[in-house]
Amino acid sequence: MAAMEPEDLFAPIDHDLRVCGLRPRLVFTAPPGEDPQQWRDLVVSGVRLGPLEFEPELAADPGAAVKSLAFHTQAAVLENLQLIEGGRAWPVCRGKHRHPMTLVSESEGAWPHWKCPVDASYHCAVGEHPGVTGAA
Q1: Of 40, 50, 77, 108, which has fewest CB within 10 angstroms of its CB?
Q2: Is 31 exposed, middle or buried (0-12, 13-18, 19+ CB in 10 A)?
Q3: With a cut of 70, which residues of the chain have pLDDT below it?
């Protein structure tokens, strides 16, 4: 299996950001002395949120790589909500739930999911978020 590019690993997260009304993009960058192929700056709705590392050892396990990226992306978005136009808890939950969904995976190697922290029966795989329909 060929090594996945950072943009390929980020694609499911990109989808979930977009359906929730945000505009993500990755920009080539690297901290001094680091491999520029392993780093991208995360920009969401025009706000540069900082670097994301695409760890080569995780690329062999796409689920683990996506979970790591989703975790760091969610943290960056939530830390910068006041700067992001239209910023809200991400990923949005359903109905009138104002909290963000929680990132989980059932076991090592499993594809990560977003789930409601109040109603665990409401969940979706990372990359398959239904969007803001019905969100508060």
Answers
A1: 108
A2: exposed
A3: 1-3, 133-136
